[in-house]
Amino acid sequence: MVLIETERLKLRELTLDDAAFIQGIVNEPSWLENIGDRNVHSIADAERYLREGPVKSYQEHGFGLYLVELKLKKIPIGMCGLVKREDLDFPDIGYALLPEYWGAGLASEAAAATLEYARNELGLSEILGITSLENASSIRVLEKIGMRYDKEIMLPGYDGPSRLFVLK
Questions:
Q1: Which residue from 47, 45, 65, 61 is spatially nearest to 3, judged by alpha carbons?
Q2: I need a surface site. Which of 105, 129, 164, 166 has the fewest CB within 10 A?
């Protein structure tokens, strides 16, 4: 079921049927560099990632990461959604697109629509953004959707500090 629709994109909840796509995207060099290794090396690993991540989040929080699909071609190109981390008071917006879809404004389009959905449909007023220190593209997306840099933070499971963004 489509939750969010934009001019060029559809976003829907991930299912176990998306395991092959998940296995591919989480092993992209850009994902590994900016987000980290999620130990997804098989379809079974991808199904575990989905069950323990997005699907569990939908059940516990009513939101999670969503599949981003090109509306006209009906092909998956990435993920975008909200993540509730134990160490943060509020959910943060996350996104990742396959590299061949970078540079066309699709990440900003998906993130802006997700932010609007979070506010209007989920009733969330406080949303954070997190990115690695060097991820200039991700920083631009967060700034484009109205977030501003707040401070550096340390998150469990990450090697170094991350930038924390808040809504302006």
A1: 65
A2: 105
Taking CB atoms within 8 Å and a gap of at least 24, the contacts of 116-123 are 117/3, 117/4, 118/63, 118/82, 118/91, 118/93, 121/3, 122/62, 122/63, 122/82
DSSP symbols for 54-76: IIHHHHHHS--EEEEEETTTTEE
Read off the pLDDT of residues 4-48 as tens digits, 9 standing for 90 and up.
999 999 999 999 999 999 999 999 999 988 888 899 999 999 999
What is d(CA 70, CA 83) in angstroms, rounded to the nearest whole number? Answer: 22
Domains contained in the chain, CATH given: 2-167 (3.40.630.30)
Pull the structure tokens for residue 130: 């997190």
Tell me the residue type at 12: R
d(CA 90, CA 166): 10
H helix or E strand, kind and range, residue 25: helix 19-25
